[in-house]
Automatic annotation (TrEMBL):
Coiled coil: none annotated. Residues 58-84, 147-191 are annotated as: Disordered. The lineage of its organism: Eukaryota, Metazoa, Chordata, Craniata, Vertebrata. This is OSBL5 protein. Residues 151-164 have a biased composition (Basic residues). It comes from Fregata magnificens (Magnificent frigatebird).
């Protein structure tokens, strides 16, 4: 939280390395933690509270003592488990025998989806993601628009047929029948039929949101590629 300087021992020169300005502080992410009184005995803030307090007071000797007390308690607990034949079962971590490493059970390494993900939070030690399901909402809205257009089209087809059957068979009626804009054979409309008949033109709101989503999607793909490179 304070300024960091690089001191050259040879010539005594000092250079500014880090300066957390007010602008930097405003851009920081908010830190969310479990309330101290709601934490269990083994959560870090509660478990290391005496060590932390000593460090904040600048008492290195006291901090070392408190740390030794914690470590000795853990050694004694491990010794008792071995003597009693009790297997230690971690709540949030699992052991990988292949790499001989411990891994968090609920880690989420998928790329962040800004279109659907709102926030990530921890509850009872488990990471969870709050989602808005925007893609589903857009899909439903698009389907509703398409269905409305298809319904209006079928109604116009039905009206056209009614007019044809009510006319007398004459040259005039034949001209009327041939001038009908939709063929009589049209019964049901598939998605492709809708595109052929011009139903791909969405409502103004749909079209605007879809274009916006395409732009964001392109940006997301670029970020995902960068994340994959970082993971590699």
């Amino acid at each position: 939280d304070g300024e960091v300087h690089i001191n050259e021992l040879k010539n005594g020169n000092a250079e500014m390395f880090w300066n957390p300005t007010s602008e930097v502080r405003r851009q920081r992410l908010k830190r969310h933690i479990v309330l101290f009184e709601e934490q269990t005995d083994f959560e870090s803030e509660r478990l290391w509270q005496h060590v932390t307090s000593a460090i904040n007071k600048g008492d290195q000797h006291k901090a070392t003592q408190e740390k030794s007390v914690l470590e000795e308690e853990q050694r004694n607990a491990a010794r008792e488990r071995r003597e009693n034949g009790t297997e230690w079962k971690p709540l949030l971590f699992q052991h990988d025998a292949t790499t001989n490493e411990w891994h968090y059970k609920y880690e989420d390494l998928r790329p962040w989806d800004p279109l659907n993900d709102i926030a990530q939070f921890e509850k009872n030690g488990i990471l969870q993601t709050m989602e808005r399901h925007l893609s589903t909402r857009m899909s439903n809205h698009k389907t509703t628009c398409m269905n409305n257009q298809i319904t209006r089209h079928k109604r116009s087809v039905k009206d056209c047929r009614r007019r044809k059957t009510s006319d007398q068979p004459s040259n005039h009626s034949q001209n009327t029948e041939s001038s009908c804009s939709t063929p009589e054979s049209v019964q049901e409309l598939s998605d492709d039929d809708g595109k052929y008949l011009g139903f791909e033109s969405l409502c103004a709101q749909c079209g605007k949101e879809m274009n916006h989503l395409k732009e964001i999607h392109s940006a997301v793909l670029s970020l995902q590629r960068a994340q994959q490179d970082i993971h590699r």
